[in-house]
C-alpha cells in the first residue's frame, strides 16, 4: 500500500533534494532558453514523477507540475515574510522564523527569487 506523501517528511526531503539536483526545473530562463531546454525539462519532470510514484502510483507529469507550483508558492510566501521582517528590523522586531519545515530545504531557490521579491516589495512600498 502506498503511503501518503503529504505526511512523510523523509519522502519530501528526498523529493526536494531531487528537485534541487534538477536545476533545469527551477533556474529562470528566457523564452528562447526554455524552448532549447524543453526536452531536458521533460526528462527532469519524469525523474521527479518516478520518485513521486513511490507514494502516489497514479501520479502524472501534471501532478508533478502542480506539486512544484505548490512548493514554490509556499516557499515564496515564507521568503516574502522573511524579507519584510528584515526590512522592518529597525523597528526592533523579532527576526522572522519560517513556519514551514521545508523552507530551509528549498533555500536553493533564494538566488532566483529574492531579488525579484525585493523589487516587488519596494514597488509596493512606493505606492
Layout: helices, strands, pairs:
Layout: H1 9-20, H2 31-36, H3 38-52, H4 61-87, H5 110-126
- Give the C-alpha Rg: 17 Å
| Total domain modules | 1
- Total number of β-strand segments? 0
* Uncertain segments: none
Shape: globular
DSSP strand (E) fraction?
under 5%
Mean pLDDT: 85
Largest sheet: none
Give helix and strand order, one letter per element, not per position.
HHHHH
Oligomer: single chain
Level of helix content? Answer: 55-70%
Coarse structural class: mainly alpha
Distance between the termini: 53 Å
Number of helices: 5
Domain MADF: 14-114
Pfam families: MADF_DNA_bdg
Protein name: AGAP004590-PA-like protein
Written overview of the protein:
The mean pLDDT is 85. The protein contains five helices and no strands. It is mostly helical and 127 residues long. Helices cover 61% and strands 0% of the residues.
